[in-house]
Specification:
Elements lengths: L2 H4 L2 H53 L18 E4 L5 E4 L20 E7 L8 E11 L2 E10 L7 H42 L17 H50 L6 H29 L7 E4 H10 L6 E6 L4 E4 L1 H18 L3 E9 L12 E8 L33 H11 L3 E5 L6 E7 L5
């Protein structure tokens, strides 16, 4: 079981914050003690250097005595020696009088001062001293003044450690408490959102989570959740309408088949088997068309992948015209070499749906026009240009306020209420969805007479 399963988010945040603060306090305490130790060492070096500088002044003036007096009582633990150019000790403080030189190093030119830690020698065994060597220039050569003081060891001061430990605990506790309160207040709207989400179900999608007044990430989260619920409600409503309309469309041919079969069974002598068979086949064709359209919509909605290949749009339209028996006069005007990249079967269905719709509502003539156009300004979909297919019929046309309605599923205009004249209302929605899945568009444009459908697809750069 992981930490996220054993501890709620609030405790995890408090624990993490407390750990980080405690580590920072420990680091600060160590850095502080090291800074104090370094500062004390620097101050000691300055004092030792100052003591040696006073003796160097006497050497430079020729006022040196063999026994150097302590300049102050507290300096008794800071021995000083004066060494001539030949290495002989010419003067020393009383505690090391008569002893050899405490060190042998000298400042490297052009420096006049150097310092090192020296252990043993003239000093007590096991003890180390900080020794500072200062050079004095005289006529007979370079004299060296050595001044020393016991080196300070890095010692942990109990009082300071205790104070830092108490301060660290207090700071960590105060910050952990503050973080706990802050997280507690921050999680209040999250709990409200979660409680509301728990109450929302498929039968009550009209409810929305509360949006906090304060701006921040939680407010943005609540708004995103509400937007998601809006889309979910709209999608479920579309599914309900789609299911209801599909059931209604399927029920009509099934009812017709049942009535025809039951009538034949009740009066077999009066029934014409050929006539009944043709009527049943007609209803079955309609059922098959509805099932095919529903399957196509399901695949398009699911984003099912399809094979893309370079296709001649004019050739595709010509092949569709050759495969059908037009019930209206069709006048094609197809420019060759209009190459698009897409799925042959789906684009063929798109063209078939447009032709079916045009023949269904045309009075006598359907005009087809395939051409190539330049890319519109600012539209990234058509960088290489546009392949345009116009389908124009001479029927009653479509009112401007109804042009988007006909692309809704199972939609029918008033002139197409009859199921014998119109289809189930899936052809145009399928056609538009296929066009959009190929990076294009399908719209209805103004026309002097009838309806004018305009299909735009990106030209293939491989043409």
């Amino acid at each position: 079981m992981g930490l996220g399963e054993r501890w709620p988010v609030k405790r995890q945040v408090v624990l993490f914050t407390g750990t980080v603060v405690a580590l920072l306090c420990v680091g600060f305490s160590i850095a502080l003690m090291w800074a104090l130790y370094t500062t004390a060492g620097d101050n000691l070096a300055k004092d030792v250097t100052a003591a040696g500088a006073r003796v160097a002044y006497l050497v430079d003036r020729g006022q040196l005595e063999s026994v150097l007096p302590y300049d102050q009582p507290s300096a008794r633990d800071r021995p000083i020696q004066v060494v001539d150019p030949r290495g002989g000790v010419r003067a020393a403080t009383p505690d090391i009088a008569g002893k050899p030189a405490m060190a042998t190093f000298r400042p490297e030119p052009p420096l006049r001062k150097a310092s090192r830690k020296v252990c043993g020698g003239v000093f007590a065994p096991g003890r180390c001293h900080l020794v500072v060597a200062q050079q004095v220039y005289r006529e007979d050569g370079d004299w060296t003044v050595y001044s020393a003081a016991p080196a300070q060891a890095f010692e942990v001061m109990p009082g300071l450690v205790a104070g830092l430990a108490v301060a660290s605990v207090l700071v960590t506790a105060a910050l952990a408490y503050g973080v706990h309160r802050s997280v507690e207040r921050a999680l209040v709207p999250v709990r409200a959102i979660r409680a509301e989400l728990d109450e929302i179900n498929a039968s009550d999608l009209g409810r929305r989570v509360p949006v906090p007044r304060a701006k921040g990430e939680i407010r943005d989260l609540a708004q995103s959740v509400n937007c998601t619920l809006d889309r979910l409600e709209e999608t479920l409503e579309q599914q309900r309408r789609f299911t209801s309309d599909a059931s209604h469309e399927l029920r009509s041919p099934l009812t017709a088949i049942r009535a025809q079969v039951e009538g034949a069974l009740l009066a077999p002598q009066e029934s014409d088997l050929k006539e009944i068979g043709q009527a049943v086949l007609k209803s079955l064709d309609r059922l098959q068309a509805i099932a095919t359209d529903l399957l196509t919509l399901a695949r398009l909605d699911a984003g099912a992948p399809c094979e893309r290949e370079p296709l001649d749009l004019s050739g595709l339209v010509a092949a569709e015209l050759d495969a059908r028996r037009p019930v209206r006069k069709v006048l094609p005007d197809l420019d060759p070499g209009v190459i698009v990249r897409g799925d042959r079967i789906r684009l063929g269905r798109l063209v078939a749906h447009l032709l079916d719709n045009a023949e269904r509502y045309a009075a006598s003539t359907v005009r087809l026009r395939v051409r190539r156009e330049d890319a519109p300004n600012g539209d990234p979909r058509f960088r290489s240009g546009m392949a345009v297919l116009e389908v124009i019929d001479d029927g009653t046309g479509i009112a401007r306020d109804q042009r988007e309605f006909v692309f809704q599923r199972f939609a029918r205009l008033d002139t197409a209420r009859s199921r014998n004249a119109g289809g189930p209302g899936l052809g145009l929605p399928i056609a538009r969805q296929i066009a959009e899945s190929h990076g294009g568009s399908l719209t209805i444009m103004d026309s002097p007479r009838g309806a004018r459908f305009l299909l735009c697809l990106p030209l293939s750069p491989e043409r």
